[in-house]
Design goal:
heterodimer, A: alpha/beta, Rossmann fold, four-stranded parallel β-sheet, 4 helices, 40% helix, B: alpha/beta, Aspartate Aminotransferase, domain 2, Nuclear Transport Factor 2, Chain: A, eight-stranded mixed β-sheet, three-stranded antiparallel β-sheet, 11 strands, 41% helix, oxidoreductase activity (chain A), metal-binding (chain A), MvhD/FlpD (chain A), iron-sulfur cluster binding (chain A), Hydrogenase iron-sulfur subunit (chain A)
């Protein structure tokens, strides 16, 4: 029997909010698909556009930026930087011809475990609907 | 003389006047800046032939005089030379002639603290476009039927490109040449900035008589350059005529219109997503990792290049990360100078790719790079 295709999603979590939020989802036993590969960064502002591009080129079907809500950044302005980078990257990837869903930004706080699980479920469904990334090499499983 | 004045000026030195274009004003301003100790060094383009100009950095007045004369087929951007100067002499002062793309590159570098704009005298040159030397030689053989080695002078007048040899003089309209695939470089065709309003003073022959240069003064530094040259007795000035001012504005308007038309013609949007992706994948596939585009790029300002940080030639990605990072980096600052396309040994139309990205982001953030020192780059977050 052929296995159902699950997308590979690279998830950048900030140490102070989203990573704790994802932890909260686990502790609260909220169900979510095993599609994400989580990378913890100290701040969403640390997510260099180069990381995102590398993730996409190495076979991720989607990349998610997550961080503290605007105004809650542990380092005061990190998430503003993340937002700007996200906007720029979005334009570039759109011009390159990647679908809108493949790069997303979501603010998740440390207490939003159920929102986190819900978000991952939603994104996984979206990516399943549009299929594997055209940037992924044929030999990548 | 005041800021905002429009005048015509010419050199008093007979030798400069003979060799230089439009009365040799720019050469005289540069020599005067050196003689009057306004600047430590000058960057100028030394003419080797009609198709080759070599940028030199010098404090020798005689060397500068050798640089007089206009060159349309030497597309060189002087920004990186100015950056090098300030690396070596952080407290030095510098003067250089700058076409709009030189000036815009310099202002973008100044925003990134690589050039001290307070200590840089920019002598703006009106520019209707430059030509690729090799294409020009081919054009001379095919369209003009002239041996490129025999050309002694070239000139652009009333939309016509004129080449002179010892025996004859031939003129063909630029439109006709560009239809045939020759003429100006592609990025110059759609460049809308012809008068360098961001410099200290703009010089050009639009609206000026024979052997004079039309000058518009924009800043205190521009005024200083002019007054210095007048005090040293190197130039002579006269107020510009009403007719001249009108001709200059009209010429500029016509050039802008032509540029807009070319822009529409070249940047046809590719509607289908997958088709777009394949277009980018196909053109960038030819890259041989020489990194030449990075070295010549006038707005590239990383100390340690981010574009090679994430990149390994052993990667077998569908699109090279080197180019992706560069596309992203330059999306706010690309000025469309065309240097990357010029140097690319694999003939990738890099400028077109960069402009495709940059047009979107620069329209979105309403940011035109290199126009005003006071406006921070749109990448910047307070």
């Amino acid at each position: 029997m052929e296995e159902e295709w699950t997308p590979k999603i690279t998830l950048f979590c900030c140490n102070w909010c989203s990573y704790a939020g994802s932890d909260d989802a686990g502790v609260g036993r909220k169900q979510q698909p095993p599609s994400t590969r989580t990378i913890r960064v100290m701040c969403s502002g640390r997510t260099d556009p180069g990381f995102v591009l590398t993730a996409l080129m190495e076979g991720s079907d989607a990349v998610l930026f997550t961080g503290c809500h605007i105004g809650d950044c542990h380092y005061i302005s990190g998430n503003y930087k993340a937002k700007k980078r996200f906007e720029m990257l979005k334009e570039i990837l759109d011009e390159l011809g990647l679908e809108d869903e493949r790069l997303q930004l979501q603010w998740i706080s440390a207490s939003e475990g159920s929102e986190f699980a819900e978000y991952i479920r939603k994104v996984t469904e979206e990516i399943k609907a549009i299929g594997p990334s055209p940037l992924r090499q044929e030999w990548m499983k | 003389m005041n800021i905002g004045d429009r005048i015509v000026a010419w050199s008093k030195d007979e030798e400069i006047k003979k060799e230089g274009a439009s009365g040799g004003l720019v050469t005289s301003l540069l020599t005067a800046a050196l003689k009057g100790e306004l600047v430590d060094e000058v960057i100028a383009l030394q003419k080797k032939s009609e198709f080759e100009g070599v940028p030199i950095r010098t404090s020798d007045v005689d060397e500068v005089i050798k640089c007089s004369g206009s060159l349309h087929a030497a597309p060189i951007n002087l920004t990186k030379f100015a950056v090098r100067f300030f690396e070596e002499h952080p407290d030095g002062t510098l003067a250089l002639p700058a076409k709009p793309c030189d000036a815009r590159g310099i202002i973008e570098q100044a925003k990134r603290k690589k050039i001290d704009l307070e200590k840089t005298y920019l002598i703006g040159l009106n520019c209707g476009g430059t030509m690729d030397p090799i294409t020009t030689m081919k054009m001379l053989e095919k369209m003009y039927e002239i041996d490129p080695n025999e050309v002694i002078e070239e000139e652009i007048e009333r939309g016509k490109l004129i080449f002179k040899t010892k025996k004859e003089e031939k003129a063909i309209s630029i439109d006709e040449l560009e239809e045939a695939g020759y003429g100006r470089r592609e990025n110059c065709r759609y460049c809308e900035i012809n008068i360098p309003v961001m410099t200290d003073l703009a010089c050009g022959n639009w609206g000026a008589g024979k052997n004079e240069t039309f000058v518009e003064i924009f800043t205190e530094k521009g005024l200083k350059l002019m007054n210095n040259a007048i005090e040293l007795g190197l130039i002579e000035t006269a107020p510009a005529t009403e007719k001249g001012i009108k001709i200059r504005e009209k010429t500029n308007g016509v050039m802008e219109k032509v540029a807009k038309k070319w822009h529409e013609k070249i940047f046809v949007p590719i509607e289908d997503r997958l088709e777009r992706l394949h277009y980018y994948m196909d053109v960038m596939e030819d890259c041989i990792d020489c990194e030449a585009c990075k070295y010549v790029c006038p707005v590239c300002a990383c100390d340690e290049s981010k574009c090679i940080d994430f990149y390994d030639p052993m990667d077998s990605h569908k699109i090279s990360i080197y180019h992706l990072v560069r596309l992203l980096h330059l999306s706010d600052s690309c000025i469309g100078c065309g240097q990357c396309t010029d140097v690319c040994p694999a003939e990738i139309p890099l400028t077109t790719l960069h402009r495709r990205m940059a047009d979107r982001i620069q329209t979105k953030y309403d940011y035109i790079p290199g126009m005003d020192m006071k406006i921070p780059p749109s990448f910047e977050v307070e």
